Structures are given as C-alpha cells and as structure tokens.
Amino acid sequence: MNAALAGLAELTPASVQAPANIVARARAIGAEIAARHAPDVDRDGRFPIEAFEALRAEKLLGVMIPAELGGGGASLFDVAAACHALARGCAATGMIYAMHQIQIACLVNHGGNGWHRELMQRIAAGQLLLGSATTEKETGGDIRNSVCAVQADQEAGGDRFTLAKNASVISYGDQSDVILVTARRNPDAPSSDQVLVVVTKDDYRLEKTSLWDAMGMRGTCSDGYRLEAAGVLDQILPLSYADLSAQTMLPVTHILWSSTWLGIAADAVSRARAFVRSEAKRKPGTTPASAVRLAEATAKLQQMKAVILAAIRQYELACGSPERLTSLSFATAMGTLKVTTSELVREVVEASIRTCGLAGYRNDTPYSLGRHLRDAHSAALMIGNDRIMSHISTQLLVQRDGSGAFE
Ligand SMILES: Cc1cc2nc3c(=O)[nH]c(=O)nc-3n(C[C@H](O)[C@H](O)[C@H](O)COP(=O)(O)OP(=O)(O)OC[C@H]3O[C@@H](n4cnc5c(N)ncnc54)[C@H](O)[C@@H]3O)c2cc1C
Predict the structure, then answer these.
(1) 111 backbone dihedrals φ, ψ, rounded to 5°
(2) 235, 264, 283: which is the final residue of a domain?
(3) Lower CB density within 10 Å: C or N end of the chain?
C-alpha cells in the first residue's frame, strides 16, 4: 500500500501494535466480506449480517473488554484502526462497529459493580451487540437533556426501576442485545440531570415507530422505537451522564466516528488513484490532468488522519485524570475533532469524484463514489455540526487561554 494512503494502523509504531492482530483481522473482514456486501446492504438498507457474523467469529465485538473478564483488552487506538479498516469496505459496518464499541467503552470505564462486570463477561463470551438510545423524540439532537426518566418501582421494594423512552433513532435496534439509554435520574430531576441505564434484551421491549429510509448509512438500520424497560437499580451507571459523557462517551464517540469517516475517505481516494493510474496507462509518458485533484484529495486525507491521531494521543494523555477529561480545553479539542473530520470526509469524497469525473459519478464503474458521498453526508448531521459549534463558541467565552500546545 502507498505510504501516503496508508490507514491508521500503518502509522502505528511496532511497540503499540494491537494484541492478537485485531487490526489485521478487521482489515481482512472489511476488504473481503464487508466490501463484497456493501452495495446490497446500501441498496436494501439492510443490516450487514455477513460482516457481523465474521466479526463475532473472530471475537472482535469484545476486544475492548478487559482480558480478566474474557475480552481482548484492546486499546482505543486498536479499535479506531479497526473502525477505519471496516469502513473502507462498508461505511455502515464501520459505523455500527464504532457505535457498539462506544457503548463498550462506557461500560468498561464506568461500570464497576458486579452486575456490570457480569454483563461484560457475557458480552465477551457471547459476542453480544450493544446499541444506543440517546436521541429522544421530544428533544431531538439535544442529547444532554432528557424528557424520559428512571422511575423507581416502589412496589418491588425500591431496588427496581421502569423506564419508557420515545427513542426516535436506535441504530440496529432489531439486532441489539443490550441498549444503553439516557434518561433523567428520577421523575423530579431537571432535564439535564441524566444517567445512563444499561438494559439487556430480557429487560426491554421495543415497538417500532419509524423506518430508516435515508440518503446514506442505510445499513445502520436506524429505525425509531418506543422503548419500555424494567430492571434493577444496579444496572444504572453510577457516574452522572454529564461526567460520563465528558470523560468517555464524547471523546470516544468523536474518535471512533472520525476513524470510520477516515475509512470512507481512504476508500474514495483509493478509487480516485486507481482511476488516475488507469488514465496514465492509457497515455504513457503524460501525467493525467486529474492527478491534481487526486493530490488535493490526498492532502485532505492526510489532514484527517493527523487530527485523529492527535486526538487519540490527547485522550491517552488525559486518561486517568478526570480533571483533564472534564476540562473545557479537552472538550473543545474533542468537539472540533468531530466538526473537522465530518467536513473533511465530504471534501475528500468530492475531490475524488472530481478526479474520476463521470466514472466516479456513474453507479456502474469500479470508480463509483455515489455511496461514499451519501454516507459522508451523514457525518455533519450526527450531532449537528452547528449545534456543536454553537456550544464550543459559548465555551470559548469562559475558557482560559493557558493550555500549552501539547496538553
Ligand atoms: C447514521 C446515524 C445513526 C444514528 N444512530 C443513532 C443511535 O443509534 N442512537 C441515537 O440515539 N441516535 C442516533 N442518531 C441520531 C444522532 O445522534 C443525532 O441525534 C441526530 O443526528 C440529530 O438529528 P437532528 O438533525 O434531527 O437534530 P438536531 O440536533 O435537533 O438538529 C436539527 C437542526 O438544527 C440545528 N441546530 C440544533 N441546535 C443548534 C444550535 N444550537 N445552533 C445552531 N444550529 C442548531 C442542527 O444543525 C440541524 O440543522 C443517528 C444519526 C445518524 C445520522
């Protein structure tokens, strides 16, 4: 592979290579299975079942769970590289894998009690798939506020709860074995006093309220549901959602989403490069005019890669220090990461389409980029960039300008 187009894994120093070669296994599944089924996953808007059967067979769903609980103990870098590798073949597969691992990270970092540890063992042993219900019909993309609330079940002695949520989007809800749900701490709590509730298939009932027929990311099957759940209070992660989001959910989400989008961008540039090479073969001794656009796409791809690697490093440096993880400068870095990569993925795909011309615009050539463009457009909407920028602009008003370049 050309070094300039190498994925995240190729940039890894040998000393931090993934255990048991997680990245190589994800790359094989992405290239051989996810890529083969990507056109019909997209066309039919169906779950990428073949890729997930392979991920289960390779035990790649539990890789981030600690080894003592039966998982692979993989680092965030390993998982980011796996998301990238899978998304190169099929963006929906990469995104589902990313969303699953984000939930795992929340459980691993914040689920300390016996119930959570036993669930992690079950996830690793059974290769269970985790989904997320943060978006609510009443609050839309404002996921830091909830209308639904955890209701203590007094009749059951006070150690049980019930919860009902109008979840307007739960990706792969039909395929999920466990769902992490945001809700107000209790019915009297303000909308921003949220907790994250872990419910398993035995605890919840889903009633479908809308179908996912979208422009792109069609294989994520992001249908809407009414979720009704009941369980024991131990299932609720103890840290407030505000802190849990700052320390884990938000940074891990933005790093893994960005890595998935990098996979879309990398595949688009690969196709553009193949097109330019085929043009060069047709007219030996000349550099095709389209090569300039390829250089532009490549430069933007490198930019994406650089900001993701910097963010992973920043996260690693901040890990273990709740003070750093909840600092405004860290939140700004992770917010701008998402906004930057979500814009760049679209720009890379657009430059790749310009490189290939009609061959990229058509749906029936080896250089087709329509699916990539449609998938890339979801990036700016997954928690709207304008919403994030408006939040960051408020933070900047109160943020001290004291942090060093490498903090
Ligand atoms: C592929 C995909 C998969 C998803 N999977 C899940 C899932 O599994 N679980 C889940 O819970 N959710 C999921 N979501 C939903 C996602 O997390 C967001 O909640 C959703 O994309 C936001 O939708 P919205 O644009 O309707 O909402 P809003 O964020 O309400 O935005 C509506 C519009 O208002 C603008 N806007 C909002 N606030 C501001 C502001 N302060 N300043 C300026 N403009 C603003 C936005 O930019 C946007 O144009 C998924 C979304 C996608 C695309």
Answers:
(1) -105, 80
(2) 235
(3) N
